[in-house]
Each structure stands twice: as structure tokens, then as C-alpha cells.
Amino acid sequence: MTPWNEADPPVLPPAPPGRRLLAVLRLAAIALGTPLLLAAFLIAQALNRAGLPRWQDGVQSLWARMCLSLCGLSLRVEGTRMPHGGALVANHVSWIDIFTILAAGRVTFLAKAEVRGWPGIGPLAAVTGTMFIERRAAAARRQQEEMRARIARGELLCFFPEGTSTDGMRVLPFKSTLFAAFMSEELRAAVWVQPVTLVYDPPAGLPAAIYGWWGEMPFGRHVWDVTTRSRGGQATVIYHPPLRAADFADRKALAAACGRLVAEGMAAHRARHPLPEAV
Q1: 245: domain CATH number?
Q2: Domain containing residue 228
Q3: Is residue 254 within 8 Å of residue 179, measured between CB atoms?
Q4: How far apart are the first and last CA of the chain?
Q5: SS3 of 127, please?
Q6: pTM for the complete prediction?
Q7: Is 41 helix (H, G, I), strand (E, B) or coil?
Q8: 98 by DSSP, 3-state: which?
């Protein structure tokens, strides 16, 4: 998949020493808090298997809210998240999307199979329930059955149909590949797909694209830029009315309808909340 790279990285103001120290403290908090909350998550997961309440969702939400706050962002939720199993599809801005979506509520992420082997991220994704998608045709039937079982258990499967991240100022056309699973004979009649718009508003003085991570931007540098400079920003999750897969002729029509709602949600948000001037 070719990364989107049609905008220049933002020009950021110099970070004073106090902000650099703040970034070190924020990163240390994430590094220390993540394994502690992961251990709590695994304990809660084991207790749930023993018949106790599902506390791991609360632990995961706490971790996501902590990380979002340490990225200098507060959370705002608009609309109503559907109460039953199905799929959430959202635009993709950066690695921060993971925190934003999980802070708003429990989901099961769909990720390409290669992510399983990524250092740190792969094992963390695996133990927290991520479903890894293989592109081999031989795996399609098994994966569709697993999706159906997860949805029947009330899980919300979440993925990013743009296929790449952007600067957060636009929504690219949604690719229909993963929508094909929802149009299968086993799933089509039962699956609802809820479009979700993610919007990031920076504080005054920062460029609008500070939270976007795209193209060849180094990951470590972007984490440093966000944790150093972001303070008082807002991440908004907009839930749109869910769409029933059976109401669409094919996967392309369903993907296009979802993409249109997500783009309209971003445009409406920007109209209501004009971006501050960067300095």
C-alpha cells in the first residue's frame, strides 16, 4: 500500500526547554503506565473467563485516555455509538487514532497480518484482541467465520478503509477490500457498519496538521513533536447513523456511502469549529 504523501509536513515552532522536559515526562509516563495497565488488563481478562464481570474494557479505556491526555488531547464524543456488534469504519490520521477510538469505547481492531511481527506493537495488539487479516484467498472463509463469531458476541470490528494515514484535513476515498467480508452470504443480512469521523483540533499557535502522521515522516520524530508541543488540543469522535450491509448492492456501494458520511462529518465539524491561526 502506497502511503499518502500529498502535503508537506507542518512547520513547527521551536520548543522551549520546559516543553522538552514535559515530553520526557509524558513519554516516561506512557512507558511505565502501559505495562502496568496491560498486566491489569490480562488479569481482568482471566477473571472474565472465570465468570466475573468484563473489567478489561474499563482498563483498556483507562489506558487509552491516559495516552490521549499525555498527547495533549482531550476527548469529545458526538453522536451515538451503536449498542450491538458490527463494524466501525473511520478516517485515519495517525497512531493517535488508536487512543482516540479506544478512549471512546471498546473495539476490536482489524490489522494486516504483518503488524503481528512489529516489535512492541505486534505483541501488544495480539494480547488485546486485535484480529489480524491475511490477504491469502485460502484464509478468507476462516476469517469471515471469525468475524461473524466476534460480531455475534457483540464485538465492534474497527478498521481504516482509506488504507493510509493523512494530515487529518481531508478524507480519502474508502477502499472496498475489507467491506467484501460483510457482503458475504453469512454476514450480509446481520451486519451493521457505523461510519466514524475523527477530527483533531490543535490549540492556538500550532498548525492544523500537527497530529497527522503520513508519507515518510519518521515515527519517533512525530511522537516527540506531539508530546513536546501539544497542550490543550481536542480529539473528536463523531458517530454517524449505522448502515445495514444488506441495503447496498455491493461492497463498493457500501464503502462509498460510509466514506461520504465520514467526509461530510469532517466538513461539518470544520464549519462549526474553525481552526485557530498558527504562528
Answers
A1: 3.40.1130
A2: 17-272
A3: yes
A4: 34
A5: helix
A6: 0.93
A7: helix
A8: helix
